[in-house]
Amino acid sequence: MKRLLSALHWDALQQYRYKFYAVGVGMVIFWGGLFSLVPGIGRVDAVVVVPAFFAINLYVTTFYFISGLVLIEKSEGTLSALAATPLRDAEYLLSKVITLTVLAIVESLLIVVVVLGIRGNWVPLLSGAFALGAIYSLAGFIVVVRYRSINAFLIPSVLYVIALLLPLLSHFGLANRLIFLLHPMEPAMELMRAAYLPTGVWEMVYAAAGAAAWMCGGFFLARWRIYRFVVREAGV
């Protein structure tokens, strides 16, 4: 626990030094200004707008931020040194996922609550948002850890982001939802929709169990990627 707390403190400080918090403030200002130009924005349908907004906004502060951190750490040799430090790979991942996801949620909530004035059932909303941010963060790590430069990563990253956002098609009624039931994002989206709509027991079981399963699966795959692309390459 002490190692994890130390890692959380270090990651929060590192993200502050790299201006991640300043970028978060900039995103709040950007979205706030953009939404202020939309007539009748205060009368939006929360069940449609809020999950979609979280899905789009979270990936910048999670998927791309963790990717940037990993590339920086690889270039500085910090990631390779992980295998020789007391910090375990699970603690390393948890620290990154928790700090970036919390940052992304605070940023998005400020926009939803302050700018749009939308509130709902906080338990499913925050649970779904955390699951979404955690899965994005883990996906970003899983994808980026094999790359050595931002130039090599950027173009393929767009394809991964598009793939992650595919459930928005069914969310907006443009595709059958059944197609995306096994998609990593859909359970988290269902949790957030439950903050604004009556939801059956089995739907909640699917949403909670599915989100937990994808987070756990992503976590174990990310740990394997550390072994494959960090530990083995370092020869430890």
Structure described in brief:
The chain is mainly alpha-helical and 236 residues long. The chain has nine helices and no strands.
Q: Could you tell me the number of beta strands?
A: 0
Helix content: over 70%
Report the portion of residues in β strands.
under 5%
| Structural Rg | 18 Å
Q: How is the main sheet built?
A: none
SSE order, as H and E? HHHHHHHHH
Uncertain residue segments:
none
Q: What is the arithmetic mean of pLDDT?
A: 87
Number of helices: 9
How do the helices and strands line up, and which of them pair or pack?
Elements: H1 2-17, H2 20-36, H3 46-76, H4 89-115, H5 122-144, H6 150-164, H7 168-171, H8 186-193, H9 201-234
What do these coordinates show?
The chain has 236 residues and is mainly alpha-helical. The model has no long low-confidence stretch (mean pLDDT 87). The protein has helices spanning 2-17, 20-36, 46-76, 89-115, 122-144, 150-164, 168-171, 186-193, 201-234.
Structural descriptors:
236 residues, mainly alpha, globular
